[in-house]
Write the structure tokens for this entry.
Amino acid sequence: MVKKIFTVLLLLAAVPFIYAENTISVDMELYNTVMHTRDLVGDSFWAYGMAGKGALSFKSTGNRNVRADLAVDFNYPDLSGIPVLTLQKAYVKAKFPVFRLTVGKTRLGWGDGFVFNSGDVVFGSISPYVNLIGSEIRSETAWLTAVNFPLGRFSFIEGLIKAPDLIYSGTTPLGMGKAEELGAGLRLYTKIASIKVEVGYYFDGRDNSAYDVNHTSINPADDISIAALHRPYVSLQGNFGPDFYLNSSLAIPGADGDNLEAVVKDTFNISMGLFHVQEVGYDNNISFRLESVILPFLNWKEDDGEAGSYAMLIYPEIALALGQNISISLRSIISPIDLSAMFMTGFSWNVFEGFNLLANVIVNAGDGNDTFSWSKDLWIPGDDTMDGISVMAGVSYIY
């Protein structure tokens, strides 16, 4: 079945590229992994296995006014042990004299932030549970249409419509969703002096979207069910030596009686960050990044809440590049209120062109009921948040 799907995708992908210049690339990562995990009844044990992921990308390059990208991701294994083939991107961008059009499955960069971005009201970027391995921490895409109207060299207005979640007729997927559950937004991007200013609004029509619009829960004690959300945001970005960025957003319920105060308090959040690259000697550099997200009305004491409902998270990162071949990085997500953290140390050595040796170690440090835990007190089958430690060694190859 997987082979059939893959073949169909390749044939479909080839059609628009037959008559245009294009590039085709394959990015593979293959790992040996040892980790501390759980079985289906929650008993912990040490596990070993091999896993891999790959990305096949077709990009058009022959037309300066039109760009297209079709990317298919392959991951093995998922929780079921079955290879998973995913259409990650499938979009076309066209540049007209007075506007720019984007149509397809892609991601828009609203707000600023590498891990935490309160301005990302379309996809949500404040959850602590992310994969710290890789150049992109947040890579979720969606089917959307966006129109961008330039207002000057550093200014534009952008509007988007995001397709609703698919619905079923009995057990048959219809391939479409309810029109009232679509997403729609508008943002203004400009510069004031040397500061980038971005303001915008996003309407999320999904049922119960209050619980997942930022991929984090509303305070569980409020038990709120929301039919739709209005999400305004503001974002600032500039430089005073290091780059800095500051974002804020909140949610407003779309119907009367949806407990306005509780929704606003549980979703109001502020993210901020600093980033700086410093040259070290000849052809070496070291980069520093520090980000934080604050939800001021959530829990500021450990005994007030449970994992995922605390008011602050911190993301520090240090990366050292030795010439063009070796890189070493240390990343962490810290939950300062319950004193728990996830640490990741990564190593990459570019031995040959496109070929890298990789090693990564991820460690969770915390008690059993903390945001990050060495061994969770309560484990739910299907939970994909790691506890304990994971050691990975392998290779990557781009060709």
